[in-house]
Amino acid sequence: MIAELGLAALWLAAALAALQLVAGFLAVRRAEGDMAALVRPAAIVQGALCAFSFAMLVWLFARTDLSVKLVATNSHSLKPLVYKLSGAWGNHEGSMLLWVTVMSAAGALIAGVERRLPERTMHATLAAQGFVALGFYAFLLFSSNPFERLPLPALEGNGLNPLLQDIGLAFHPPTLYLGYVGLSVAFSFAVGALLTRAVTPDFARAMRPWVLGAWVFLTIGITAGSYWAYYELGWGGWWFWDPVENASLMPWLAATALLHSVTVLAARDALRAWTIMLGVVAFSMSMVGTFLVRSGILTSVHAFAVDPKRGSFILVLLAIYIGGALAVFGLRAGTVAEGERFAPVSREGALVVNNVMLSAILGVVLLGTLYPLLTEAMGVRVSVGPPYFNSAGAIFVVPMLLVMAAGPLLRWRSDRLARVRGPLVVAALVALTVLAAVLILAAPGILPLIGLALGAGLLVASLLPLRGRSLRRLPLATWGMVIAHFGIGVTLIGISSESAFSEERLAALEVGDSAEVGPWRVTLQAVTPVAGPNWNAIEGVMLASYGGGAPVRLAPQARSFWTPPQETTESALETRWNGQLYAVLGKAADGQRWQVRLWWKPFVTLIWLGGLLIALGGVLALLGRVAHDLRRRTVTRKAASRRAELQP
Amino acid sequence: MSRLQPKHQRLVLVMVALVALIAAGLIGAWAVRNQASLFYVPSQILKDRPGPDRALRLGGMVEKGSIVTRPDGVTIDFMVGDGKARVPVTFTGIVPNLFVEGSGVVAEGRMRGGTFYAEELLAKHDENYVPRELADMTAAQKAAMAQAAQ
C-alpha cells in the first residue's frame, strides 16, 4: 500500500508539473487571466506531493519491504538502520527520485517566496522549471520506477554495495543533488528572464542566492567525495581525475564563473548576455554530469545499473534542455541590450578574466573527460589521467589565481594598477620567499613549487581587502569572499604539499617488525581476525611513533562483506597538525609476512580544510545577501504603508 | 584609461572569450594526444613496441602458475597473455583482491626492454564492477585465452 501511495503521488506531481508548464506558458502569452493564478500553487503542491512520495520510499526501506523490487535488490534486513535509510537513495531509482524531490522543493520555494521579479518573468521561470521537472518525471515513471513490486516477495535482500555502507554516503548524494538542482533553478531564472526580456540587476539578485546555494553544496559535496575516496579506497590519493569526479567538478567550475558574473550583473548591470549563457552552461554541465554518472557509460561505483535505455533517455533529455536553451539564447541574445561599460583595469575586468579562465579550465576538463568516450566510438581505447589534467589545467589556473589576488582590490568601473601596487608587492614578496625557501629545502616538481608559492601569496592577498576597513562593519558578503579566497589558498597549499613532500613505504612485515616512513616508525604488533555486523576482517594492529615519541595505535583492516560478497580496504589514519599518517594492510606475502603500505602526507588535511573554508565563505555570502534582501523588503513595505497612510 | 565605445566593448569581450576558449581547446587537444594512455593486448604491444615514455594500459589474462613473489614480499612478476602472445609484467604494491591466476587484469604502466612495469593493477572488482576493457573483450577472445591458459 505504501508503495502504491508513493507511486500515485509521483504521478500526481508529474501532472502538476505539466499544469505548471502549460499555465505558466499561457500566463506569459496573456499577462492576465485565470491561468496566471494557477502557476504558483501548482509549483507548491507539486513540491509537497514529491516530498510525500520520497518519504514513502524511505519508509519502505526502513521496513525492508521485500515485495518492492528496489528494496529487495538494494537492501538487507540485517543492515544497520542508518544504512537502510541511506540505501533509499544509494541506487539508481531512489537517487533519481531524490533528484526530482529536491527540484520540486526548490520550485515550491521560489513559487512561495520570490516576489521581486515582474510576475510575467516569474511565470516564465516556473514554466521552465516545470518543463525541466517533467522530463525527469517521465524518466522516473517510464524507465526507472522506484516503487515497482515483485510478483513474489523476496525472502531476503541483496544488500548494498559495501563501499557505499559508509556514513559519507548518507550525505554525499543529497549534497551534490542540492547543488545540481540549485543550478537548474538558476537555469530556469535565466530562461525566464530571456523569454520575457527582463535581464536586469533584479533578476541577478533573485538568481544569486540559488547560484550561491548550489555552489556551496557542490563545494561541500566535492570536498566530502574527495575525502571519502581518500580514506575508503585505500590508494592514498585524494583526486583521481576519474570521470565521475569530473562530473561534479565541471558544474562547480561553471557555477563558480556564474557566481562571479551574476555579481557583476547585480552590482553594475554589466555582463548580461554572458551571465545568461553561463546559467545555461552551468545547468548543462550538471546534466552532462548526471548523464556520465547515471547512464552506465562509465564503470564505477556510481553506475548502479547498466541499462542502455536509461542512458539514451538521459541523453535525449540533455539534448532537449540544452538544445532548447541554446536555441532560445541564440534567438533572444540579440535583444539583450548592452550593459554598463567598464575599463579593462577594473573589478569587472578582473571578473571577466576569472570567468574566461574558469571557462577555459572547464573546456580542458570536459575535453579530457569526453575524449576516451569519443575515441572509443572510433574503436580506439585510451584513458586520460593526471598528466593531462594537471599540465593542461595549470596553464589556466595560474593566471586565474594571479588575477584573483588583485581583483578584489580593484574598484568598479575603472581603476589604476598603480593604486593597488603596494599591497600586491607584499603578497608577491611572500610568494617569492616561499618559492626560495622550498627550492633550498627540497626540490619538488615545478607544479607543486608554483602551487606552494602561489598558495602562500594568495593567503596574504586574500586578506588585503580587509585593509583599512572596520572589521565590525564589513558586510557578511565581503567576509564570505575573503574567507572563500583564503580557502582557495589553503587548499592549494595542501595539494602542493601533498604532491611535493609525501613519502611512501611499502614493505612485507612479520609481526614484531618495523618500517619507517618520514618521521614515523611503525611496528606491526599483531594480525587478528575481527567480525562486524555484516562483514569479517583481518585487522593489523600497529604502533606508530612520531620522531621517537609516545606510540599511537593504528588498526587498518581488510574486510570481507557477505552480502554482496566483496572485499574492501579500511585504511587507518593518524592526523597531526602537520599531516597525516596513512596505513593500509595488504595480503599475506608469504607464510609469516604481511604486506603493509604506509604514507606520510605533510599538510594533506589542508586540502579539505580549504574546501570547507570555501564553502563557509559561500554560506556567509548567502546569509549576507538574504539578510540584506529581507531588510530591504521590510523597508520597502514600511515605506509603502506610510505613503498609503499619508494619502487622504 | 579611456573607456571603450559600447559596441566595441561587447565585441572585445566576445573576442577575448573566444580566443581563450580556442586556446584552451588547442592546448587541450595537443595535450590529450600526448598524454592519453592507449589500451593494448599482448599481441598488439609486441607488434607496435611503444617507447618507454608512453603511458599505456595492458589488458589480458594472468597466466596460470606465472605469479612469482620476489624476496622483498611486495614485488611480483607474472605473465599476461591474450592467447596469441605473452608479456612479462612486474608490479610493486598491494594487488587488488580479485587478482588471481587465470583471470583478467588491466595493468597501467610503461613498457621498458620487453617487460611491462605496472604502476597500477585493475582487476575485476567484484561481480558488478568489471574494468571496461575486460568487460568488452569478446567471448571468442576469452575462449581463446582460456584455452591458451590450459
Description of the structure:
- The complex is a heterodimer of chains A (648) and B (150).
- Chain A has four domains: 165 residues, no CATH class; 247 residues, no CATH class; 120 residues, no CATH class; 98 residues, no CATH class.
- Chain A has 17 helices and eleven strands.
- Chain A starts with a helix and ends with a helix.
- The model of chain A has no long low-confidence stretch (mean pLDDT 87).
- In chain B, strand 3 and strand 4 form a beta hairpin.
- Chain B has two domains: 36 residues; 112 residues, OB fold (Dihydrolipoamide Acetyltransferase, E2P) (Beta Barrel), CATH 2.40.50.
- Chain B is elongated.
- At the A-B interface, helix 12, strand 1, helix 13, strand 2 and strand 10 of A face helix 1, strand 1 and helix 3 of B.
- Strand 1 of chain A pairs antiparallel with strand 1 of chain B.
Brief summary of the model shown:
The complex is a heterodimer of chains A (648) and B (150). Chain A has 17 helices and 11 strands.
Largest interface: A-B, 56 and 49 residues
Q: Outline of chain B, from the CA principal axes? A: elongated
SS strand fraction of chain B: 25-35%
Total count of helical runs of at least 4 residues of chain B: 4
Structural category of chain A: alpha+beta
The biggest beta sheet of chain B reads: 5 strands, mixed, barrel
Helix amount of chain A: 55-70%
Number of strands of chain B: 7
